[in-house]
Design goal:
heterodimer; A: mainly alpha; two-stranded antiparallel ribbon; 48% helix; 3% strand; elongated; B: mainly alpha; Cytochrome C Oxidase, Chain A
């Protein structure tokens, strides 16, 4: 039967041995992290962004690298997903972009601070994270590519659509639920109407929840053209997760 | 109770109870915010509630551990505590730091690093405070007439916990390394040295409550803490899967975290086996309930539910979702909250001389809080698994998913109501026992020791 001194030896030897291995792996990790996280892009602006991220406890609601609270969206790939224009608009006035939704603190950041946070999020998005976040594997099941008997048109979504519109509106079941779905919007609204609407929603329909988005005239033209082609029965080309 | 200085434990326990209540209040604020009722947002935004909830947990558990050490160390070392005034100063300053930190959180003054939100200047005060504590119990142990395994393991646990607070203060500009060191604190605390503390408290309580030979209990204590470190140290790797650290952590973390439940399983088997072997029926039945309950619930919460999402291929999807909250709640409750409550239940009759251990209220507190916490875990599980499927598998938008799972937070609030009722009953019993007054006659409480 095991004696007390043998039990103590098991504890001491095990602890020392595994602490040693852990320290060795830590040293190796410290050596490899700069390459894996592209530390060469870690500019003073990115570091400023990191400090702002900490000072305001952004992790208290959001997750980054999958770490934080689970109250607000995962931001690891937000630079890709939403683009800098959306992030800037969001940081300037969070409630304008998601009216009546779960609220974010209005931080009154300066332009310089906003740029620093955008740079930080861009740097985070470029790391090699061993496959995180995963691509949604059930997306093709949830959003069928085509349905028999329906006219399927492969209309390519503009990048700006995937970054901005999708945050609040859905198309073919993909996207946010803040605004109405955009399926078939081309049958209801023509190109000119959509251009005016996107240029200044408040002017066309005072009191609407739709914010004036940070869009260039070229963006507006591209979006209006895309949206006006979304006739009933037509389906846009399904894409990977951008939600 | 053999030594008058053990009485100081009571005040640590009392502060722990107060902080525990406050922690629950912040929990409700967050649960309501998840349900869509974020009316407090302008005053207490979610991140302030979250930082308060987590830090209050850590603080009240540390307060409980300190109280437990102030009770156990003199008893085990066979002498009075070296300094009561030092213990008082230490408690008062700890409360002051806690209040400053809490107020700071509401004024956007913090570090914004999960679980370690306490701002840097206050970190130094925490370190000084804990050093005072370590010195006080360390000297008591050093000058004691006995050096038992239980007391040494307890001291080593507390000492290492203090030491491991330091990596969290390493300043780095790389977010990945920031997380890397942060887990040195958080993981090596809860899945490492805190288990030494838990193991020592469990051993002490089992020695006292079952009357089984100290040598037998302490031998198995070594085996269990040995298993803990064997799996737990490299098990830190399960935090290094997807944060920008090398790919080999998927193997290291995966294999060693799969072994982590072993230590908790050992703990549960150990507690149950010792109680079954014991011929003695200790009158403080509730203390025994909490002790064995802690060993079993820590296996379910920390061991089993931890394993449920610790494999890299599962964690790829569950990382950063409410599944973590599911595991976290039952793990902390079972392993650490319950062992502190067990220690309090055991100590109170000895400290105050009032034998309130088998009242209906105390029994109600045990069952209601446990059923409440298991139900809360179930609510988090349903919300978490749904979130994983809709967000990570189907690719739905974050806020759209949150709307889908709002209803489960109603379930959470109801379960938390039940849990709170149980905790209130526990605190009622605590208050009913009153303060330790005058001299406690060791002979009057001899059958409880």
């Amino acid at each position: 039967m095991l004696s007390k001194s043998a039990a103590r030896a098991f504890f001491l030897i095990g602890t020392i041995a595994f602490s040693g291995i852990f320290l060795w792996l830590t040293i190796d990790t410290i050596k490899r992290v700069p390459a894996q996280t592209k530390e060469e892009n870690l500019t003073p602006q990115v570091v400023h962004g990191k400090r702002l991220w900490e000072q305001n406890n952004c992790m208290g609601c959001h997750t980054i690298l999958g770490e934080g609270a689970y109250y607000a969206p995962e931001l690891t790939k937000v630079y890709d997903r939403r683009g800098p224009a959306f992030i800037e608009a969001m940081l300037r006035d969070p409630e304008a972009l998601f009216p009546g939704q779960r609220r974010m603190v209005q931080y009154d950041f300066t332009d310089e601070e906003i740029q620093a946070l955008v740079a930080f999020l861009k740097w985070i998005g470029e790391m090699d994270l061993n496959g995180f976040p995963p691509e949604p594997s059930l997306l093709p099941v949830a959003v069928p590519q085509s349905t028999s008997g329906e006219v399927v048109a492969a209309i390519k979504r503009p990048k700006v659509y995937n970054q901005l519109c999708i945050a609040c509106h859905s198309l073919g079941g993909q996207g946010g639920t803040v605004g109405p779905p955009l399926d078939g919007v081309g049958s209801r609204r023509d190109y000119d109407h959509l251009v005016k609407w996107l240029t200044n929603p408040q002017q066309m329909k005072p009191g609407t929840l739709m914010p004036k988005l940070p869009l260039s005239p070229a963006d507006i033209a591209e979006l209006a053209s895309f949206l006006s082609q979304l006739k009933q029965g037509n389906r846009p080309a399904a894409e990977g997760n951008k939600g | 109770m053999k030594y008058q200085s053990q009485k100081i434990a009571y005040y640590f326990f009392a502060v722990a109870m107060l902080l525990f209540l406050l922690q629950i209040v912040y929990g409700f604020i967050m649960a309501f915010a998840h349900m869509g009722y974020d009316v407090l947002h302008p005053v207490i935004p979610f991140n302030a509630a979250r930082a308060s909830h987590n830090n209050l947990l850590v603080l009240w558990l540390l307060c409980g551990f300190m109280g437990a050490a102030y009770f156990i160390i003199p008893d085990e070392a066979d002498r009075e505590l070296v300094s009561i005034p030092l213990a008082v100063v230490q408690l008062v300053t700890l409360v002051l730091v806690a209040v400053a930190a809490l107020v700071g959180f509401h004024a956007n003054w913090w570090e914004g690093r999960k679980f370690l939100e306490i701002p840097r200047p206050l970190d130094y005060l925490v370190v000084v405070n804990v050093l005072l504590f370590i010195a006080n119990i360390g000297l008591t142990l050093w000058r004691g007439r006995r050096h038992t395994t239980t007391s040494i393991v307890l001291f080593m646990g507390l000492f290492s916990a203090a030491l491991l607070y330091l990596p969290g203060m390493i300043d780095t500009i790389n977010q990945t390394m920031d997380s890397y060191w942060r887990w040195w604190v958080v993981h090596l605390w809860v899945e490492g040295v805190w288990e030494l503390i838990m193991g020592a408290l469990l051993a002490y309580l089992l020695i006292k409550l079952t009357g089984i030979d100290r040598e037998v209990i302490e031998k198995w204590l070594y085996v269990i803490v040995g298993l803990t470190f064997l799996s737990g140290i490299l098990g830190t790797g399960h935090h290094y899967y997807y944060i920008g650290t090398p790919r080999y952590w998927l193997w290291v973390g995966g294999i060693f975290s799969a072994l982590e439940p072993l230590a908790f399983f050992g703990m549960a088997v150990y507690a149950v086996a010792m109680v079954r072997r014991s011929g003695r029926r200790h009158p403080n039945v509730l203390a025994l309930f909490w002790t064995v309950g802690s060993a079993i619930m820590s296996f379910v919460g920390a061991g089993f539910l931890g394993f449920a999402h610790t494999l890299p291929q599962v964690n790829l999807y569950t990382h950063g979702t409410l599944v973590t909250a599911m595991h976290g709640h039952l793990a902390f409750w079972g392993a650490y909250a319950m062992i502190v409550l067990a220690t309090i239940s055991y100590c109170m009759p000895l400290l105050t001389g009032r034998k309130l251990y088998e009242t209906g209220m105390a029994t109600f507190a045990f069952w209601t809080s446990n059923i409440g916490m298991v139900s809360m875990t179930a609510a988090f599980a349903v919300a978490g698994v749904t979130q994983v499927y809709l967000e990570r598998k189907v690719g739905m938008d974050f806020l759209a998913v949150q709307e889908e799972i709002q209803i489960h937070f109603l379930g959470l609030v109801l379960a938390a109501g039940l849990f709170t009722l149980g905790v209130l009953a526990f605190i009622y019993t605590f208050l009913q026992a009153g303060r330790p007054v005058g001299e406690v006659n060791p002979h009057a409480t001899a059958e409880l020791a």
